[in-house]
Amino acid sequence: MKKRYTLIIWTSALVMAGAIVVSAFSPTGAPAGYTGSPGDGQNCTSCHGGTATNVNNWISSNIPPSGYVPGQTYQITATNNHSGSAKFGFQVSPQSLSGTLMGTLTAGTNNKLVGNNKYVTHMLANNTDNVWTFDWTAPVAGSGTVTFYGAFARGNPGPVALSTLAVTENTTGIENQADYNESFRLYPNPAADHVNLHLPSGTAGPVSIRVSDLRSGIKVLEQTILSGNSHRLDCSMLPKGIYAVDISTETGTISEKLILQ
Question: Cα separation of 207 and 248, whole Å?
């Protein structure tokens, strides 16, 4: 009886361990924050192992060469070009240099959104489907270049690839280009101990300002403006370097690069 009791305990332990393994490596989509972007700082090798390889053209779109039009919706395609018989998976996110979500994602068929709708990933990995499409609604005017960061894996363990797609903003057809450029200003740039922020007239508060180190993506300064179109940002406590400044309002987020010297 004693040996039989011990066998039952070990059998139960093995079943529980197996359940844990299956849960940890479930093919029902990647957890949020694994695109390999500067803001995320990690990719699918965290679970799949190995070393990630940088590849080109695994993310494509129907955005014209002239660039996206703010507020318009476009189709984005992610293609996992790994070879082999294991299951395909992906995760993509359109971000600013500091990792802020740019625009709005709509999951599409067989996909789902994770991380407060910041990331799109596969709903159920399988051996045959390696192409996914989803929609992206472009951010507000003045947002500038947006980069789609993507991580692609096949199998576990399996190869991991990283790919990006940078899309520019279409500013053609604007009657007064000077007015467009004046809608949002960060000056002086390069700056020393302070920088002035000018917002378009009629911008409703509150306005959130986030400054992050461009290389690490770590937030170093954050402020909120309740009202007004001009603001002086004290940068005297920050070391010299290159930073990403994200300005978030109720209509969207604008990202600019700031040089402190």
Answer: 6
Beta bridge partners of 207: 225
Cβ neighbours for 149, distance < 8 A, ≥ 6 positions apart:
35, 36, 37, 40, 92, 93, 94, 95, 162, 164
pTM of the model: 0.63
Instruction: Spell out the domains of the chain, with CATH numbers in brackets.
Output: 30-167 (2.60.40.4060), 180-260 (2.60.40.3080)
Whole-angstrom distance, CA of residue 193 vs CA of residue 115: 35
- Amino acid letter, 123: M
Spatial separation of the C-alpha atoms in residues 34 and 40, rounded to whole Å = 6
Q: Yes or no: say if 129 and 142 are a contact pair by the CB < 8 Å rule.
A: no
Q: Determine how many CB atoms are found less than 10 A away from the CB of residue 180.
A: 13
pLDDT of residue 46: 84
> Over the stretch 6-51, which tens digit does the pLDDT of each residue have?
444 444 443 444 433 333 334 788 899 999 999 999 998 888 888 8
Going along the chain, which residue ranges are E strands?
53-54, 59-61, 73-79, 88-95, 104-106, 111-114, 119-122, 131-137, 146-154, 160-167, 185-187, 194-198, 207-213, 219-225, 230-234, 241-249, 252-260
185 strand-pairing partners: 198
- What CA dihedral angle connects 95, 160, 27 and 119, to 10 degrees? 0
H/E element holding 229? none
